[in-house]
């Protein structure tokens, strides 16, 4: 049996969310229970960009494709974890060139965000030039351990550059206990339709 690394966030009310906004935290409430003589059931209220999730182009591109258009075959297969824990501020083309990235690769960025369970306001993000470099190579998927793949860039050029190049964006993976290297990646977003993202269970196998 291969080693399995669960790289998805646990959905709970106390979890980290974008900029720690209270309104973005999931809400879990009991709607019926055994004390009432009924089966126990809960109601989950959740933003589609909560925790580990897959972005659809609609998130950033007017008229963009919705989450159900992303085939599972694109979310399962060989992948490589890149150790970028030394990067401060932004991930640039210069940071990525040494990895000799190939067309079609699925890449997971391990940054300082994996080392904290709190939202880092200054999390390392993929800068526009890095996104263009990866889009020009033709990578298939980029997963980052922050809850966003970019920040502090007007007009969201990282998202839009990748989405226009048909690169899948996954945000909020957990890589603290995962070493750099090659793995088999499995990402299973909730089977939703017509919307901009879906929370997902994600794991790696070595």
UniProtKB/TrEMBL annotation:
<dbReference type="InterPro" id="IPR037175">
    <property type="entry name" value="KFase_sf"/>
</dbReference>
<dbReference type="Pfam" id="PF04199">
    <property type="entry name" value="Cyclase"/>
</dbReference>
<protein>
    <submittedName>
        <fullName>Cyclase family protein</fullName>
        <ecNumber>3.5.-.-</ecNumber>
    </submittedName>
</protein>
<dbReference type="InterPro" id="IPR007325">
    <property type="entry name" value="KFase/CYL"/>
</dbReference>
<dbReference type="GO" id="GO:0016787">
    <property type="term" value="F:hydrolase activity"/>
</dbReference>
<keyword id="KW-0378">Hydrolase</keyword>
């Amino acid at each position: 049996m291969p080693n399995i690394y669960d790289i998805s966030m646990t959905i709970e009310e106390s979890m980290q969310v974008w900029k720690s906004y209270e309104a973005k935290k999931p809400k879990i409430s009991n709607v019926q229970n055994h004390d009432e003589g009924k089966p126990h059931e809960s109601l989950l209220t959740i933003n589609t960009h909560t925790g580990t999730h897959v972005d659809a182009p609609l998130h950033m591109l007017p008229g963009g494709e919705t989450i159900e258009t992303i085939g599972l075959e694109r979310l399962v297969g060989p992948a490589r974890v890149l150790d970028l824990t030394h990067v401060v501020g932004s991930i640039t083309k210069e940071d990525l060139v040494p990895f000799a990235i190939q067309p079609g690769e699925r890449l997971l960025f391990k940054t300082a965000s994996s080392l904290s369970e709190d939202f880092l306001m200054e999390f390392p993000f993929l800068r526009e030039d890095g996104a263009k470099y990866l889009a020009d190579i033709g990578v298939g998927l980029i997963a980052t351990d922050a809850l966003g793949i970019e920040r502090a860039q007007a007009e969201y050029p990282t998202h839009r550059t990748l989405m226009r190049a048909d690169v899948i964006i996954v945000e909020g993976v957990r890589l603290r206990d995962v070493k750099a290297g090659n793995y088999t990646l499995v990402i299973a977003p909730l089977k939703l339709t017509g919307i901009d993202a879906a929370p997902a269970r994600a794991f790696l196998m070595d």
